[in-house]
Design goal:
Strand content: 5-15%
CATH topology: Cytochrome p450
Distance between the termini: 57 Å
CATH architecture: Orthogonal Bundle
Shape: globular
Order of helices and strands: EHEHHHEHHHHHHEEEEHHHHEEEE
Number of domains: 1
CATH class: Mainly Alpha
Number of helices: 14
Radius of gyration: 21 Å
Strand order of the largest sheet: 1-7-4-2
Helix content: 40-55%
Largest sheet: 4 strands, mixed
Structural class: alpha+beta
Number of strands: 11
Length: 396
C-alpha cells in the first residue's frame, strides 16, 4: 500500500469534499465504529445523515445551549467549586459525557457521581477502541476491554431504549404530541428503524459512537482552550466582558489543536488529486494539523495563538479544518463551537457553543491554574491530549 500525504489547506479541503474518497481512519476501531455515521459512505451515509441532521438544526443547538446545558453543568460543577479545585480533564469528561448522553439518548436516572463514574469508565474505553489506530497498546487487549464495556453499557441503554419505545407508541396512538418526544439520536433512530433497516446492534454502536466522540473531542478541546487562554491573557476573567472574543479564543485553540491531527481517506476508484495519482489500494493521509497552520490561509505566524487573527479565505472559519469539510463534516460543529461571529453580531443572542460556555462558567467561578500541581500530558496516545490539568477556584 502506497501512502500519500497532503498538508496544504486547499489540497486537504478539496480531498475532504471529494465524494470518491471514503473515511478509513477508523477501520481498526470497527468494534465501535463499523457502519456508524462517521464511517458510512455513499447512499447509506446520505440517508442516515439526512435523518440525524434533523437534530442538528440551529434551533435545536440554541435549545440545547440555553435549556439542557445549564442544568447538566450545574449538578456536575457545583460540588467541585465547593471543594475549591478540580482536574479539568476529569471535569471535562464528566460534564461533556453527561451533555452528550442527553443528546444521544442515554438516561441517567440517579444523577449521582457514582452513576457518572460507571458511565464515564465505559465511555473512555469506547474512545480508546474507536481511536485504536493512535493507541500504543496491544489491540487485542483494547478490543477485549471494549466488549466488556459494551456489556456494561447495555445496563444504561436497555432502559433508555424501552422508555423511548413506550413514548413512541404513545405518540403513534395519539396519546402524546410529537414535541413531547425526547429530542435525541436514539429516539430518531428508533422511529425510523424499519424504514432504513437499522439492526439493534447497529443502533447500539451508533449511540456508543456519539457518546464517546462527543465527550472525548469536546473535553479535549476545552482543556486545550483553557491552557491557551491562561498562557495568553494577563487576566482571563476580563474575557467575561467580551464573550465574542472568548469564543474567538476557543476557535483559535481549536485550529491549533484539532481533535484528530490527521484524517485518512481511501479512494473508491483510481483518481488524481493534488496532481497525484492514487488507487483504492493506496492510503491518503490528510494532515489537518499542518493544514490548520498553512501560512497561505492563516498568515505569517500560523503557529501563534492569536484570537484576533483575520482569515480572508472564504471557505474557512478561524477554527480551520478542525471540524472537517464535505459530507463528513462534524455534525456537532455548532453544538461544540457555536456559530462564528460577524461584525454587528449581538453578543446577547449569539450562539457560542458548549466549549465556550463551559469556559465562561469556569471563569465566572474565578478558575485559575493550580498553585501546587502542574498539568501533565496523556502518554497513552499519540494524539496531543492532556492527561491531567489541575485548576483551583478562587471563589470557593
Amino acid at each position: 500500500m502506497a501512502q500519500t500525504t497532503l498538508s496544504r489547506f486547499k489540497d486537504v479541503h478539496a480531498a475532504l469534499c471529494n465524494p470518491k474518497l471514503r473515511q478509513s481512519l477508523y477501520d481498526a476501531g470497527e468494534v465501535i465504529m463499523k457502519d456508524v455515521l462517521l464511517t458510512l459512505h455513499g447512499e447509506q451515509h446520505k440517508i442516515r445523515r439526512h435523518l440525524e441532521l434533523r437534530l442538528f438544526r440551529r434551533n435545536y443547538a440554541h435549545h440545547y445551549e440555553t435549556n439542557v446545558f445549564p442544568k447538566t453543568l450545574a449538578w456536575v460543577l457545583d460540588p467541585l467549586v465547593s471543594r475549591g479545585e478540580t482536574d479539568l480533564v476529569d471535569f471535562g469528561y464528566r460534564v461533556t459525557m453527561n451533555l452528550t448522553a442527553d443528546f444521544a439518548g442515554v438516561d441517567r436516572p440517579q444523577k449521582t457521581a457514582e452513576e457518572t463514574d460507571r458511565l464515564l469508565a465505559i465511555v473512555k474505553t469506547f474512545s480508546e477502541g474507536a481511536t485504536l489506530v493512535h493507541s500504543d497498546r496491544n489491540p487485542s487487549e483494547v478490543i477485549a476491554e471494549v466488549k466488556t464495556a459494551q456489556t456494561a453499557f447495555r445496563k444504561f441503554l436497555e432502559p433508555s431504549w424501552s422508555r423511548r419505545q413506550r413514548l413512541i407508541s404513545q405518540f403513534l396512538n395519539g396519546e402524546l404530541k410529537e414535541d413531547e418526544l425526547p429530542r435525541d439520536v436514539l429516539t430518531v433512530l428508533l422511529r425510523n428503524q424499519d424504514s432504513i433497516e437499522l439492526s439493534d446492534e447497529l443502533i447500539e454502536r451508533e449511540i456508543s459512537f456519539y457518546l464517546q466522540a462527543g465527550s472525548h473531542s469536546t473535553a479535549n478541546s476545552m482543556v486545550h482552550a483553557v491552557h491557551e487562554i491562561f498562557c495568553w491573557a494577563e487576566d482571563p476573567t476580563a474575557l467575561l466582558e467580551d464573550p465574542l472574543l472568548l469564543q474567538k479564543c476557543v476557535h483559535e485553540s481549536m485550529r491549533l489543536h484539532p481533535a484528530s491531527p490527521v484524517a485518512w481517506r481511501t479512494p473508491t476508484e483510481p483518481i488524481t488529486i493534488a496532481s497525484r495519482d492514487i488507487t483504492p489500494d493506496d492510503l491518503l493521509i490528510l494532515d489537518l494539523h499542518a493544514a490548520n497552520r498553512d501560512p497561505d490561509i492563516f498568515g505569517d505566524d500560523p503557529e501563534k495563538f492569536d484570537p484576533y487573527r483575520y482569515v480572508t479565505y472564504v471557505k474557512t472559519e478561524l477554527y480551520g479544518l478542525t471540524f472537517g469539510a464535505g459530507v463528513h463534516m462534524c455534525t456537532g460543529r455548532d453544538l461544540d463551537g457555536g456559530v462564528a461571529s460577524r461584525p454587528g453580531t449581538d453578543k446577547d443572542t449569539h450562539q457560542y457553543g458548549i466549549v465556550c460556555m463551559l469556559i465562561k462558567t469556569l471563569l465566572e467561578h474565578k478558575m485559575i491554574p493550580h498553585k501546587s500541581r502542574k498539568p501533565t500530558l496523556d502518554l497513552n496516545t499519540l494524539r496531543n491530549s492532556w492527561g491531567t490539568y489541575p485548576v483551583q477556584f478562587e471563589q470557593a
